[in-house]
Amino acid sequence: MIHKTLINDAKKVLNANFQEAGFTIPSKGLYPFQWKWDSGFIAIGLSYYNIAKAKLEVETLLNAQWNNGFIPHIIFHKENDSYFPGADFHCSELHPLSSKKHKSTGMTQPPITGFVLKEMYRIAEDKEDMLQFIQKHIDKVYENHLYFYTNRDPFNEGLMYIYHNWESGTDNSPVWDDIWKTMDPPEYAFERKDTTHVNASQRPSKREYDYYLHLIEIAKKHKYDDEKIAKISPFLVQDPLFNAMLIKSNEALIELYDLLGGEGAKKLVIQQWQQKSKKGFKKLFDAELGAYIHYDLRNKRPIRHITSSSFSPLFAGIPDVEKAKILTTTMLEKFGGEDKYLCASFDPTNDKFNPKKYWRGPVWINMNWMLYYGLKRYDYKELADRIKKDSIELIDRDGFFEYFDCRKENGEPNRTGYGGGNFSWSAALIIDLLKN
Ligand code: DGY
User: Fold this and answer.
1) Measured from the CA of 169, which atom of ligand 1 is nearest?
2) Which residues are known to be catalytic?
3) Is 366 strand, coil or helix?
4) Are 422 and 16 in contact (CB under 8 A)?
5) Which residue is closest in CA terms to ligand 1's atom 3?
6) In contact, 42 and 57? CB cutoff 8 Å
């Protein structure tokens, strides 16, 4: 019964966030445009009850692809002054191959579109019809991966770099703090908009925004040229989540090309990427911490913190069974106390853990969704079920928010979730978890 109500409420959230231009905003006010990875998760939820909208969501995103295969992290379909930094700040037109149709940012987000297509195929009742849709769009995703392997892997390690914390998806993680220490950006004058929608204690600080803007200014100065960025950006990181998503999407593309048939050459290329990336991924495993971690390519040092991204390689089938066991032990020991919901975004035993602040501790439903399937993949059924149960309980208790306190009791008498309300991917992915 509660499940039925939750599913209906989730659909209401998604319907209210749908825009005429053919996409769904993540959350009213706070995020008024199309975000790349949000759109993918949203399409998964939509596939359960409105396959036409799910297809449109992906189609609209892919329509904004650049001529070099790049897919931007935000597509500014129309003007909206409730968000900063907007189209005028990012100036995607600086890049010679950027979309002529759509203004966007000049950075990307985790490459999930490949596995999203596969999920849509899994969910669709009319498989033939969905395969036709996939046939029409799959090469764009292939071109996107080709962009990564051509431009984002300067040392040919099979590990892509990101040049901005917003490319990671885990925007304000403490993982970036040591990189900020290597930078000294000017104090920019600008008007924050996010803190007019959300309590400032749940968002990044002004100084953190200076770093974020500074990285964009550097990229803009070089017209978003990948080669220059790789040479000079103070932020150049190999992120386990970003790379695990690429590997998961590679895997999906191989399976989908198999279903479609006749694309042997492309499949072979992806298989080679996959081999290289899985091998390269070993670099990100920290045996002492028992987890995958980030690597700071600019300063040539590992960033030794455990985050929910540390466990995301399970979703892509990257660790062997031995490493998978180590990951689950670390997860349970550090994140899995009886007083906590799984899975905090940052190590709760670390001094930098903050249960309320954007990616510095709270639980995120998209990460839980990936961990649920990742743990199932390795047959950790009990732990997977716990993550699913915790996700449902959090949404039922705190509402369709962007992120959630991992503490079962946080002392707040009128407890709610944090960040943006009526948050689309929380709604979309809970539909999947409940229907599955
Ligand atoms: C924000 O504005 O915080 C967005 O998450 C950037 O992607």
Assistant:
1) 7
2) 171, 402
3) helix
4) yes
5) 171
6) yes
Tokens of 371: 């961990």
Q: Look up the pTM and report it.
A: 0.98
- Residue 330 to residue 122: CA distance in whole angstroms: 31
Q: Which ligand 1 atom sits nearest the alpha carbon of residue 358?
A: 3
Distance 78 CA to ligand 1 centre (A): 17
Owner of token pair 């954007």: 358
Residues 226 and 95: their CA atoms lie apart, in Å, by 10
Second-level CATH architecture of 2-79+111-160+244-293+304-435: Alpha/alpha barrel (1.50)
Residue to substitute in 30, 31, 38, 108 for testing ligand 1 pocket (most ligand atoms within 8 angstroms of CB): 31
Residue type, 36: K
Is residue 37 lining ligand 1, measured as CB closer than 6 Å? no
**Is residue 31 helix, strand or coil?**
strand
Q: Which residues pair with 31 in a beta bridge?
A: 27
- Which tokens belong to 31? 């995020």
Ligand 1 atom showing the smallest separation from residue 203 Cα: 3
Domains of the chain by residue range:
2-79+111-160+244-293+304-435
Q: pLDDT by residue for the chain (436 residues), tens digit each?
A: 668 899 999 999 999 999 999 999 999 999 999 999 999 999 999 999 999 999 999 999 999 999 999 999 999 999 888 999 999 999 999 999 999 999 999 999 999 999 999 999 999 999 999 999 999 999 999 999 999 999 999 999 999 999 999 999 999 999 999 999 999 999 999 999 999 999 999 999 999 999 999 999 999 999 999 999 999 999 999 999 999 999 999 999 999 999 999 889 999 999 999 999 999 999 999 999 999 999 999 999 999 999 999 999 999 999 999 999 999 999 999 999 999 999 999 999 999 999 999 999 999 999 999 999 999 999 999 999 999 999 999 999 999 999 999 999 999 999 999 999 999 999 999 999 999 8
- Please give the structure tokens belonging to residue 196: 């007019």
The DSSP secondary structure of 13-57, one letter per residue, reads HHHHHEETTTEE-SBTTTB-SEEHHHHHHHHHHHTTT-HHHHHHH
Report helix angle 51-62 to 36-46, nearest 10.
Answer: 160
Q: Return the best residue to mutate from 166, 173, 203, 403 for the ligand 1 pocket (most ligand atoms within 8 A of CB).
A: 166
Q: Measuring CA to CA, how many Å separate 151 from each of 97, 266, 337?
A: 14, 18, 42
User: How much distance in Å is there from the Cα of 83 to the middle of ligand 1?
Assistant: 9
- In degrees, rounded to 5, the angle at the alpha carbon of residue 372 between the alpha carbons of residues 371 and 376 is 110
* 166 within ligand 1 shell (Cβ under 6 A): yes
